[in-house]
Automatic annotation (TrEMBL), chains A, B:
GO cellular component, one term: cytoplasm
Protein name: Redox-sensing transcriptional repressor Rex
Keywords per UniProt: Cytoplasm, DNA-binding, NAD, Repressor, Transcription, Transcription regulation
Organism of derivation: Meiothermus hypogaeus NBRC 106114
UniProt binding sites for NAD(+): 88-93
Sample GO molecular function, one term: DNA-binding transcription factor activity
Residue ranges flagged as DNA-binding region: 14-53
Taxonomic lineage from the root: Bacteria, Thermotogati, Deinococcota, Deinococci, Thermales
Main location, first listed in the record: cytoplasm
DNA sequence: AGTTGTGAAATCTTTCACAGCC
DNA sequence: GGCTGTGAAAGATTTCACAACT
C-alpha cells in the first residue's frame, strides 16, 4: 500500500461530509465529478484520494452513497463512537458539549471541574465530578479521549493528570501549548472552528502507519 | 516575487508565536536553527520560508527577534487590530470574546443577538444590540470582520445580513456550511481549536495575490 | 456508452549545498 | 568563522490520459 499524502486524508473528511449531506437528501448514487464539485477539487483528485485506500465504486456507474460513506467512516475511524470526558465545565466546555454532531462522534462519559460549586450541577445527564475521580473514571469507563477546556494556567497540570490516567488522546481547547507525549496529542480538532466540516478523525490502525505526512 | 506555498504561510504563524515567546523571555537574538528546533521543522525550511518575503537577518549573525517579529506581523496583517463584531452572544460567543489573546488581534466593536432579553446585558464593556443595528454599525464603526456564533439554522441568514452590510470577512463558528462570496470567507480561524497558535491572519495585500496555494 | 482506477507526466514543495555577506 | 539567502536537486503531490470494467 503506497504512502498516503496527509492532505488526502483531510479531503476524505470533506467527502464524508458531502456524502452525509447527499444521504440526508435521499440521494443514493453519486460520481467522482459530483463529489469534486461539492468539495471544490478535481474529479481526478477524488478518485486518486479514494484509490489510496481501495476501490469503492463501479466503473461506468459511479459510487453508491451509502457504501462509500460507510467505507470512509471506517477509514477515518468514525464508524464507532469514542468515549470522552470533558475537563473544565465553564462556558467553553458547555458550549462544546452542546455542539451539534458532537454526540455522533463522542459518547460523553464524564465531566470534571476543579470548582466544588460546579460539582452539584448536571449537564447532558451527567453530574459534574471532582478531579479526584478522574483516574478511576478513565480506567473504568473506557474513556479514550479527554477534552481540555480549562484556563491556560492549569492546562499543563490537567494534561499531565490525563496522561497519568492512561488517556489515549487529548483534544486541547485550552489556550496553551501543551507538552504531552506525541501519541496522545490529537491534531485536526476542528469542530467549532471554521467550520462545520467535522474535522476529527482517528485513522483506522490499518492505515495509520502510512500516514506520517 | 515567486509563488509562495500556502503551507509556508501557516509556518510563518508558528514562527511568529515563537518569536513572541522569545521576546517575552527577554531574548533578542535568534537563528534559523533555533526557530527550526522550536517549530519542529528544518533550518533550511525556516530560511526558505522567510526568503519568499524578503531577507530579514544578518549573515554570520542571525535574526534580531524584535525585527523579525515586526516583519512577520506585517506580512501576516497582524501589525494592527481589526474591527470585529460578534453575532450570537450565547455561551460560545461569550467564551470566544473572553479568549486570551483575542484582544491583541481584534478590537471588539459590536455584540449582536436576536434575543431581546439579551439586549440589556453588557459584555466586555459593550451592550448587546439588536440585529437591526447591524448594517449601520458595520458601516459607521469600521467593523471589518463578523464572527458568527449563532445556531446552525440561522447561520446562513445572519451571514447574508453581514454580507449585505458590507463586511470584509466572516469568521464562522456556527455549525453550518455557509454559502458566501469567496472574498468574505475567512479560512484558518484556529484560536480556540487545537492550539494556541494564534492562527488567524489577513495576508498583507502586497502578498495576498501570490498566495492562492 | 459511461465512469472508475491507476501508472506516468507535470507541477509544486522541501531539502540541500554553497555562494554571499557580516 | 559563522550564519543567512537562494538556485538547483530531490522528493512529494497533483494532474492527466487512458486502460479496465459494467
Amino acid at each position: 500500500m503506497a504512502k498516503v499524502p496527509s492532505a488526502a486524508i483531510s479531503r476524505l473528511v470533506t467527502y464524508l461530509r458531502i456524502l452525509e449531506d447527499l444521504e440526508a437528501r435521499g440521494i443514493n448514487r453519486t460520481s467522482s465529478e459530483q463529489l469534486a464539485e461539492e468539495a471544490q477539487v478535481t474529479a481526478f483528485q477524488v478518485r486518486k484520494d479514494l484509490s489510496y485506500f481501495g476501490s469503492y465504486g463501479t466503473r461506468g456507474v459511479g459510487y453508491t452513497v451509502q457504501i462509500l460513506r460507510r467505507e470512509l467512516r471506517q477509514i477515518l475511524g468514525l464508524n464507532r463512537r469514542w468515549g470522552l470526558c470533558i475537563v473544565g465545565m465553564g462556558r467553553l466546555g458547555q458550549a462544546i458539549a452542546d455542539y451539534p454532531g458532537f454526540s455522533e462522534i463522542f459518547e460523553l462519559k464524564g465531566l470534571f471541574d476543579r470548582d466544588p460549586s460546579k460539582i452539584t450541577t448536571t449537564f447532558r445527564g451527567l453530574q459534574v465530578e471532582s478531579m479526584d475521580n478522574l483516574p478511576r473514571a478513565v480506567a473504568e469507563r473506557r474513556i479514550e479521549f479527554g477534552l481540555l477546556a480549562v484556563p491556560a494556567d492549569s492546562a499543563q497540570a490537567v494534561a499531565d493528570r490525563l496522561v497519568e490516567s492512561g488517556i489515549k488522546g487529548i483534544l486541547n481547547f485550552a489556550p496553551a501549548v501543551l507538552e504531552v507525549p506525541k501519541e496522545v496529542a490529537v491534531e485536526n480538532v476542528d469542530f467549532l472552528a471554521g467550520l462545520s466540516r467535522l474535522s476529527f478523525f482517528v485513522l483506522n490502525p490499518k492505515w495509520r502507519e502510512e500516514m506520517i505526512g
